[in-house]
Design a protein that fits this description.
The protein is mainly β. Helices cover 12% and strands 50% of the residues. It is built from two helices and seven strands. A hairpin with a 4-residue loop joins strand 6 and strand 7.
Length: 105
């Protein structure tokens, strides 16, 4: 399958699809975000302070749970002396599932 077909099937709007991985009872879609900077009020930052890999429950496909694996970055804003995590598409703040996952259940 081509990347564009997988992106349409799993509704990965806002993500760039990299790799498909299938395990016993789950499917992992490795993705990344295109943007490389973040804006807070009037300041734009490209300084990444920290990053983490998030595994987000996305949907169910052929009785297997589908997860999105994406690297989330934390940007530092020296003008405001603060750090902020970048927001992920289709995922609300402090949630482990995407909006599409709730619609499928």
């Amino acid at each position: 399958m081509q990347k564009s077909e997988i992106k349409k099937i799993f509704k990965l709007d806002g993500y760039i699809f990299d790799k498909f991985e299938e395990q016993n009872n789950k499917i992992i879609l490795h993705c990344h975000l295109q943007r490389n900077s973040m804006k807070l009020k009037s300041e734009t930052s490209k300084t990444v302070n920290q990053s983490r890999n998030r595994l987000i429950a996305h949907s169910v496909f052929e009785f297997k749970k589908v997860f999105i694996s994406v690297e989330q970055r934390r940007f530092y804003f020296p003008k405001h002396k603060t750090k902020r995590w970048e927001s992920l598409p289709q995922v609300k703040k402090r949630q482990q599932t995407s909006i599409a996952f709730k619609k499928t259940l």
